[in-house]
Specification:
With 151 residues, this protein is an alpha+beta fold. The radius of gyration is 15 Å and the shape is globular.
C-alpha cells in the first residue's frame, strides 16, 4: 500500500491528495473517509461545524442518507506547503427524485503525517433534471487531470 502524500506538497502530490479524497468520498463510507482526518479535525461545511472523527462520521452518515446516489469530482485549485484549495461538483438526488448539482470550494490544512486537520467548505446546490447529469460512477482514467466544467 502506498503511503498518502504528506506535506510539503508539490503539484504532483497535491493532485494525488485531491484524487485520493475524491476516491474516498465516492465510496460513501463515513468510517473510511474519516480516517483521512486527524482525531480532532475541525470542519465548517456550509453552516455546520464539526469537530473530531466521531462527529465527521455522524455528519457524513446523515449527508449520504439525504444525498442519494452521490457522486463527486474534485479539482486541485492551489496549494502551499501544508494547505490545498479545491473546487468540486457533485450530483445527487433527494428522496423525492429531484436531482441536484452541488458546486463548492474547500480549503484544507494538513498535519505532518498528511491527515487533514482543518476543512472549510462552501457549497451551493442547483436543481437539475436527470438528463442534465454529467457525473456518474468513479472517474474514468481518461478523465483524470481534466478540469471540471463550470456549467
Amino acid at each position: 500500500m502506498t503511503p498518502p502524500p504528506v506535506p510539503p506538497f508539490t503539484a504532483e502530490t497535491a493532485r494525488a491528495k485531491v484524487q485520493a479524497a475524491e476516491n474516498a468520498w465516492n465510496t460513501r463510507d463515513p468510517r473510511r473517509v474519516a480516517l483521512a482526518y486527524t482525531p480532532d479535525s475541525v470542519w465548517r461545511n456550509r453552516d455546520e461545524f464539526v469537530t473530531g472523527r466521531d462527529e465527521i462520521i455522524a455528519f457524513l452518515t446523515r449527508k449520504w442518507e439525504k444525498e442519494l446516489d452521490y457522486v463527486l469530482r474534485k479539482e486541485l485549485w492551489a496549494f502551499t506547503d501544508d494547505r490545498i484549495a479545491v473546487r468540486f461538483q457533485y450530483e445527487w438526488h433527494d428522496a423525492d427524485g429531484q436531482w441536484w448539482r452541488s458546486y463548492g470550494n474547500e480549503l484544507w490544512e494538513f498535519d505532518a503525517e498528511g491527515l487533514m486537520r482543518r476543512r472549510e467548505a462552501s457549497i451551493n446546490d442547483v436543481a437539475i433534471a436527470e438528463e442534465q447529469r454529467r457525473i456518474s460512477g468513479s472517474r474514468p482514467a481518461d478523465e483524470l487531470g481534466r478540469s471540471i466544467p463550470l456549467r
